[in-house]
What we know:
globular
Amino acid sequence: MRFLISITYDGTNFKGFQKQVKLRTIQGEIEKVLKRINNNQEVDLIASGRTDALVHAKEQKAHFDLTIKIKTYKLKQALNSYLPKDIYVNKVCEVSNNFHARYNVKEKTYEYVINMGEYNPLERNYIYQYNKLLNIKKIKKALKYLIGEHDFKAFVSADEKRNNYVRIINKVKIKKCKNKLMITFTGNGFLKHMIRNIIGVIILISEGKKETSYMNEILNNQNKNHFNITAPAGGLYLKKVRYKEEK
């Protein structure tokens, strides 16, 4: 039986999603519990994508196969009974055996949260403590350059090697709530450090160190010399994952 789960997690005390030897990861914790549920047989958890160390998820999705028969509500109860308190399974549903949590993704939404007000130590793991006003008008203008299909190689971590860096960003939204600025990116996929590096660029632009057109210059010229700031991981959230089968 193949199941799809929706997961929320606090990434603060994890070394990322992907399983790593002797390190605490989301995949590692969930697979340990699934093995226990599955009569001590190993279970592979396949997520919609990996999140980096310290990055959070409001809605990550992943699939796995079990050899036992179990009702979805009982599986949800069992998972949440054994999982640590910084991971929670919101939903479990049965899917067809050809469903794939990564390859069937249609669209993902990430959110980045910035505090423009006074430093708050209680929020330091969850909101980027920039603690200065940002020029929202300039930011909006710069972010418009990202809409559409682009090669985002210049925004990717140096250790991320792949054949294709082309992604489509369908929309970017900015919302200000008191001293918090929330920026959401929706697209068909995102690369390692891509959003955190984009945030770094808009901060340079907001501070007047670069013009708004600098965003377009990076995209067109693949300029990698702009990363004076890679925004902290704790301000980033995987907010939503949508599949081709969903309306």
